[in-house]
Amino acid sequence: MDSVSFPYWDIALSGSALEDSAKEAYRITLRWYLAYCRDHHCGVDFNSARAFVEESRQTHPNVPAWAVEQWKSALNWFFRNAKHFTEEETEAHVEILSDHEVKTMRLKPGEPEWRLKMLTVIRRRHMSYRTETTYIGWVLRFAKFVGRDDR
């Protein structure tokens, strides 16, 4: 099987009909699984998911059976929704969620429009504050390098 690409899985999970406690448990499991794939340099597919569950069982032998079933449920949700959640649907969903975010974010006097757009995308993707400041710094340094200093 080919590797699955589902970049906005967190947004899709937020919009799902699951209970909030299940959403949070799935979010934790899926972040753990994706970190496993990154650390082991493997694709996001059924084989890596099976290997993740087995390795997690071995490294955490005292984990109750219900927790392992919850891991499997989270992974099943991920693969099921990755297959059915097309890129267009994802983008539409992102735009729906971003309307509220854009309304709550305000530009300071003299700040360029691109900064608000960039912050919207970064926050929509739930990146950390440190990542946000680093990316903004890179753009500012690049603008200075090419001669456009419109902070």
Estimate the helix proportion, in percent.
Answer: over 70%
Order of helices and strands: HHHHHHH
Total discrete domains: 2
Helix/strand-derived class?
Answer: mainly alpha
> Which residues form runs of ≥5 with pLDDT under 50?
90-103
Structure description:
The chain is mainly α and 151 residues long. It folds into two domains: 9-85, no CATH class; 105-146, no CATH class. Helix content is 72%, strand content 0%. It contains seven helices and no strands. It has helices at 9-14, 20-39, 46-59, 65-84, 87-104, 113-124, 129-146. Helix 2 (20-39) packs across helix 4 (65-84). The longest helix is centred in the first third of the chain and has 20 residues, at 20-39. It is elongated, with a radius of gyration of 19 Å. Residues 90-103 have low confidence and may be disordered.
Topology:
Blueprint: H1 9-14, H2 20-39, H3 46-59, H4 65-84, H5 87-104, H6 113-124, H7 129-146
Helix pairs in contact: 2-4, 3-4, 5-6
Give a short overview.
The chain is an all-alpha fold and 151 residues long. 72% of the residues lie in helices and 0% in strands. The radius of gyration is 19 Å and the shape is elongated.
